[in-house]
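quick one before i forget lol
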Amino acid sequence: MTLKSLLLAGGALLGATAAQAGGFQVTLAGQKNNGMGGVGAGLALDQAAMFYNPGALAMVRERGVQVGVNATMARSVFRGQYAGTQYDNSARTLDNTVTTPFNLYAGFGPTEGKWKAGIAVYTPFGSKLDYADGWEGRFALTEIDLKSIFVQPTASYAVNDKLSVGAGLVVFAYGAVNLQRDLPVQNPNGGGTYGHIELDGKADTKLGFNAGVFYKATEKLSVGVSYRSKIDAVVKGGDVTFTNLPSSPVVRSNFGASKFDVMLPLPATTTLGLGFTPLEKLTLGLDVNYVQWSAYEKLEFTFDQPVNGSNTSSSVRDYQDAFTFRLGGQYQLTDALTVRAGGSYDMSPVKDGYVTPETPDADRISGTVGLSYKFGEKFGVDLSTQFVRIQERTQTQQELINNNVTDRVAGTYKTNIVIPGIGLNYNF
């Protein structure tokens, strides 16, 4: 085992395949928005504006509470570089996975007043990958399970009938990760074998902010700009557990670590959004997200005891900044029923030859549909479904050698994801 290969497993910390955003970012923050391709910065739809653009919250007339949950059902496959031309056994490479990111919003303030305030709870990072036993990259990664919860108290103020501003304190309240991989080990008594490593840790509480400006240029056109700051996710004193190692004291002495520390940047995002109402019952939205992924240059671990002779190691990520383009709309069919549709194109921050098993990322195309139904004046249900195709991506062993990143696997990945969601809302 090399420290580089150990590092690859750790690279999954807070960074597994995201549901419908590049890298390890997840934006399933509002059910109405989900049905419209994820747009929201230039609209004042409901209390989910706390996430998409806090500046728009003051323009939301209703006070209310809403809760939503999504089921990200991913189907991923991998073919090694020398495994032939077809995905003969790909169905057994990665098991199908389901995760359930959720959101909760409560908005308060006078109906006709200038200010609104609220609290938002959402899960912007959360995923699961489970590779089959004996897969080609098992010495890189076999399993990851990631959970996170963010809390955001928010305030918004309408300067006048056209302009409003807002901001929220983003609290990275809870983060937990469990990841596992196999270890190639040389037995001093002869021959080779393999053991297993499990890394388990919780992230420290960290603070950031989310701020935005919303402007109604005309009765039909609105513009919004929002910014979510970078947060450094830090795990200190995570548990390292080795199993199935030979009983030899020599082997045991090379794998004596029991704790690890690591930091992963969760990148800043700037969004420009437009809202357009060409007809009384038709609303359109366009968002452009700019994510500063270049903050993720490397992943560096520190261990409490040497692993194969060293307490630290570093692995190159070298992400690049990336754009996401989102377009969606909604049409009010009746007083009770509104239907939605949209789509997005998400550019991957992962450069060619730098793909890792914990983030088998590529450019992705999404299509969305949704609807809302109101039961009277106060209660409503929101439904959404997203269809995400992460485009097939191949990297060769020669690319890995040229980039000096041979701590990952050469081959081809592809992933399809279906994400149904449901939300309940109550206005008061």
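fyi The first strand starts at residue 64 and ends at 70.
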